[in-house]
C-alpha cells in the first residue's frame, strides 16, 4: 500500500495494516499491550477511539514503527495547556523528603482543617487554578501540624494529599498526582477508612497513567476491605467509599476492554448506591445512583458502545441527583458525553454539551488537557455548532 493511501486511512485501519505486516494476531498484539482482544478489534474497526498519546506510543512500539507513521494524517498540532503557576511550587513541596519543620507559625488544627475544607469546596466548584495557588502553603501547613500532633494532623494530611492528587489529575500532571496519591496512601496506613478514601485518588491516577489492568484488582480489594459486614446497617460513609471504589474498578476494567467485568462491578456499585441514595457527598465521593449511572456512560464510551452511553446520559440528566452533584462532577461527565456523541458521529450534540460543560465549570474545559482535546476534535468537524467553534477559538485550540 502506498504511503499516501495508508495515511488517508483512519488510525484504526493503520493499526490493523501494520499488525498484519508484523504478522501478529489480534490476541498477540493485545497481550503485548496489556489489553484484551476485544479492545484491539474495536480499535481496528474504529468503534473505539485512540485519544491518549501514551496508548498510541505503546502501539507504535509494539508494531516497531514511529509514532508519526501510525498517526499519519491524524497528526494534529499538540494541544498546549498553560499550567497555573503554582504547579511547580506544588511539585517542589511534594518532592521535599526532609522532615517537616516545626510549626513556627502556630497554625492550629482548626485553621488547617478550615483550609482543607476550602480547598475541597473550590475543587468541587471547578476552580482548579485557585486551588493550585494555595496548595503549596496548605501542604506545608498540614505537614507541620502533622509533625506536631500526629493524631489530629493525620486525617488532615491525608485529605490535603487527596485534593492535591485530584486537582493535579485535572491539569494533566499525572506524575505529581501519582506522588500525591502515594503520599496519601502512606500517611493513611493503619486507618481503614482513610486508606479507602485515598485509594479513590490512587485508582484515578492509575487509570490516567495507563495502568488500568493493574488498577482493577487493587481497587476491588480496597472496596471489599472497607465494605461493612452489614451493608444495610453499615455507615453510609463506608458504603459510599466501597461503592466509589467499585466504580473506579469498573472504569479501569472498561479501560482494559473487559465488558463483563465492568458490567459486574457497576452492578455491585448500583446495589450499594440504592442503599445510600442521592444527595450525599461522603468523603468527597458524590456517590449515589446518579453517580453510578454517569459512570456507566464513561465505561460505555471507553468500551466503544456509543449508543448505550448516549442513552444513559440522556436518561440521567433529568434526575434530581444530577443537580445535586458538584459542578466539577457534572462538567467532567459532560465531557464524557461529548466523547460519546463524537463516537456516534454527532458533532452537533458533542459541541452542545461541551458548551454546557464550560458554563458549568469553565476550568474543566479551559485547563483540563483531555477536555481541550475533545473541544478541538469537535471544532475540526465542519458540522460543529457555531458555539462550539467559538469556544474552541476562545481557549486557543483551533
From TrEMBL:
<protein>
    <submittedName>
        <fullName>Helix-turn-helix domain-containing protein</fullName>
    </submittedName>
</protein>
<feature type="domain" description="HTH cro/C1-type">
    <location>
        <begin position="15"/>
        <end position="70"/>
    </location>
</feature>
<dbReference type="Pfam" id="PF13560">
    <property type="entry name" value="HTH_31"/>
</dbReference>
<dbReference type="InterPro" id="IPR010982">
    <property type="entry name" value="Lambda_DNA-bd_dom_sf"/>
</dbReference>
<dbReference type="InterPro" id="IPR011990">
    <property type="entry name" value="TPR-like_helical_dom_sf"/>
</dbReference>
<dbReference type="InterPro" id="IPR001387">
    <property type="entry name" value="Cro/C1-type_HTH"/>
</dbReference>
Amino acid at each position: 500500500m502506498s504511503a499516501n493511501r495508508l495515511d488517508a486511512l483512519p488510525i484504526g485501519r493503520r493499526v490493523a495494516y501494520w499488525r498484519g505486516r508484523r504478522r501478529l494476531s489480534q490476541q498477540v498484539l493485545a497481550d503485548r499491550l496489556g489489553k484484551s482482544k476485544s479492545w484491539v478489534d474495536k480499535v481496528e474497526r474504529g468503534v473505539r477511539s485512540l485519544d491518549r498519546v501514551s496508548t498510541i506510543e505503546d502501539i507504535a512500539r509494539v508494531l516497531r514503527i514511529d509514532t508519526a507513521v501510525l498517526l499519519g494524517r491524524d497528526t494534529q498540532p499538540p494541544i498546549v495547556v498553560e499550567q497555573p503557576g503554582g504547579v511547580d511550587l506544588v511539585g517542589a513541596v511534594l518532592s521535599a523528603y526532609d522532615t517537616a519543620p516545626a510549626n513556627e507559625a502556630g497554625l492550629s488544627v482548626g485553621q488547617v482543617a478550615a483550609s482543607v475544607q476550602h480547598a475541597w469546596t473550590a475543587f468541587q466548584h471547578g476552580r482548579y487554578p485557585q486551588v493550585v495557588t494555595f496548595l503549596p502553603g496548605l501542604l506545608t501547613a498540614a505537614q507541620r501540624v502533622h509533625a506536631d500532633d500526629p493524631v489530629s494532623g493525620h486525617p488532615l494530611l491525608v485529605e490535603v494529599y487527596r485534593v492535591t492528587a485530584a486537582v493535579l489529575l485535572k491539569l494533566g500532571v499525572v506524575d505529581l498526582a501519582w506522588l500525591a496519591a502515594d503520599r496519601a496512601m502512606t500517611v493513611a496506613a493503619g486507618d481503614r477508612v482513610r486508606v479507602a478514601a485515598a485509594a479513590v485518588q490512587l485508582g484515578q491516577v492509575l487509570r490516567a497513567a495507563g495502568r488500568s489492568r493493574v488498577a482493577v484488582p487493587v481497587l476491588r480489594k480496597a472496596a471489599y476491605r472497607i465494605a461493612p459486614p452489614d451493608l444495610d446497617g453499615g455507615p453510609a460513609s463506608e458504603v459510599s467509599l466501597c461503592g466509589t471504589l467499585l466504580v473506579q474498578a469498573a472504569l479501569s476494567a472498561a479501560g482494559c476492554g473487559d465488558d463483563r467485568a465492568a458490567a459486574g462491578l457497576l452492578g455491585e456499585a448500583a446495589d450499594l448506591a440504592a442503599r445510600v441514595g442521592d444527595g450525599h457527598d461522603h468523603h468527597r465521593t458524590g456517590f449515589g445512583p446518579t453517580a453510578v449511572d454517569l459512570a456507566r456512560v464513561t465505561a460505555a464510551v471507553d468500551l466503544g458502545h456509543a449508543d448505550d452511553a448516549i442513552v444513559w446520559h440522556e436518561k440521567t440528566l433529568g434526575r434530581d441527583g444530577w443537580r445535586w452533584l458538584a459542578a466539577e462532577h457534572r462538567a467532567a461527565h459532560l465531557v464524557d458525553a461529548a466523547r460519546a456523541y463524537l463516537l456516534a458521529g454527532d458533532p452537533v450534540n458533542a459541541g452542545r454539551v461541551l458548551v454546557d460543560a464550560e458554563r458549568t465549570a469553565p476550568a474543566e474545559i479551559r485547563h483540563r488537557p483531555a477536555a481541550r482535546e475533545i473541544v478541538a476534535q469537535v471544532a475540526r468537524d465542519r458540522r460543529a455548532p457555531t458555539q462550539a467553534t467559538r469556544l474552541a477559538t476562545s481557549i486557543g485550540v483551533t
